[in-house]
Amino acid sequence: MKAKIIITPKKAVLDPQGKTVQTALAHMGYTGVTGVHIGKYIEIDLAPGTDKAAAQKALNDAAHKLLSNPVIEDYKLEIE
Description:
Low-confidence stretches: none
CATH topology: Mth169, Chain: A
CATH superfamily: Phosphoribosylformylglycinamidine synthase subunit PurS
Shape: elongated
CATH architecture: 2-Layer Sandwich
Mean pLDDT: 96
């Protein structure tokens, strides 16, 4: 199994990297881009036979406590 965690800044938080990329895209002629958000993507390989529900609970805890900053970031966890 593989877990995927996508971490992005909350909508209300200033994202200077995203704004820089948005401005660069506009200068390069890419029109219609109204927002860019830069985040983190983490893949975690899980051992064969891992209980999916237990892994989901543990990884949600890890994402909340270690991998993201819940004050300024949101995360999405998927387990395949």
